Amino acid sequence: MPLAPVHVRLFLVGLLLIPVLGYSQTIEVGGALGGMLYKGDVSPTLNPRFVQPGGGLFFRYHPTRSFAVRVQVSTGRLIGVDSLTTDPFQQARGASFRNTVREFAVLGEYKFRNYTPLRNVKNWTPYAFGGIGVFTHGLRQPGEGPVNIAFPLGVGVKYEFHRPWTLGLEWGTRFTFSDSLDGLKQPAAGASRLNQSDPDTKDQYTFVALTLSYTFYKVFCP
Fold this sequence. Notes:
This protein is mainly beta. The protein has one domain (24-215): Porin. It is built from 2 helices and 8 strands; from the N terminus they run H-E-E-E-H-E-E-E-E-E. It has helices at residues 6-22, 88-93; strands at 27-39, 52-61, 67-81, 96-111, 124-137, 148-162, 165-176, 204-215. Strand 6 (148-162) and strand 7 (165-176) form a beta hairpin. The radius of gyration is 22 Å and the shape is elongated. Mean pLDDT is 84; it is low at 6-24.
């Protein structure tokens, strides 16, 4: 069966997009810029001295006024230095590392205050989010796959300062199954513990960021 002319196919695509455009105030796109922090063997706590730049892009879909789904890609650097701690074991080990993380995540957000599309209303709300993501990094150990799983969990607040622009602040930690973000080797029989990671704890990384987003509000024609 021959294909329909190009203009007919474009018209059909347009018809399919009408329902989406009719509710376009539910679509939001934006970016995030901030810092990443590592937590693991080399830095057992979140140490502000190890903050490194990070950033990302995201797409939000708001099916209801209190719930949103976000798809996000982000990347950033992680560092850690044993010599900057007061722990005797870490000072004796003297490990340090630099790593780059690249992440893709699907998140669900719950907004504690309802957003409304009414005119002259300044929307703001705190929110909590969680979901699942996959990430890659540059210090994989032998036998480790190229992709790892992370479980993001965090909180944020956003304010629509000038419709349709929204500014936000967000804190989110990624819980992982990886123990090699710091490049330390997995435990091996007969090897020195100084160069080994702790198998009972897994590495984490935290992303703190300012966000700026644009919401596509529907234009009402007279």
